[in-house]
């Protein structure tokens, strides 16, 4: 991701995925596919991932081989 890019991530639980796929097939255009690997880190004395929803963490993301 270039320094000027803005990323907005929305996470939702989808109970019935097929209607979503149908909507996307008829109203959207596939643009690209990315392979991402996320590594999460927290200090020994503060496990960020133990609290839900997660509000802070250190994440290192590798997107298609670029960190």
Strand order of the largest sheet: 1-2
Instruction: Point out poorly predicted stretches.
Output: none
Kindly state the mean pLDDT as a whole number?
Answer: 82
Please give the count of helices: 1
Give the helices and strands as they follow along the chain.
HEE
Number of strands: 2
Shape, please?
extended
Task: State the distance separating the first and last CA atoms.
Answer: 9 Å
Radius of gyration: 16 Å
Largest pleated sheet: 2 strands, antiparallel
DSSP strand content: 15-25%
Share in helix: 10-25%
- Class by alpha and beta content: alpha+beta
Write the layout of secondary structure elements.
Elements: H1 17-27, E1 36-41, E2 58-63
Antiparallel strand pairs: 1-2
């Amino acid at each position: 991701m270039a320094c000027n890019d803005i990323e907005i991530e929305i996470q939702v639980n989808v109970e019935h995925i097929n209607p979503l796929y149908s909507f996307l097939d008829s109203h959207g255009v596939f643009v690209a596919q990315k392979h991402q690997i996320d590594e999460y880190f927290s200090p020994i004395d503060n496990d960020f991932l133990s609290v839900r929803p997660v509000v802070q963490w250190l994440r290192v993301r590798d997107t298609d081989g670029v960190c």
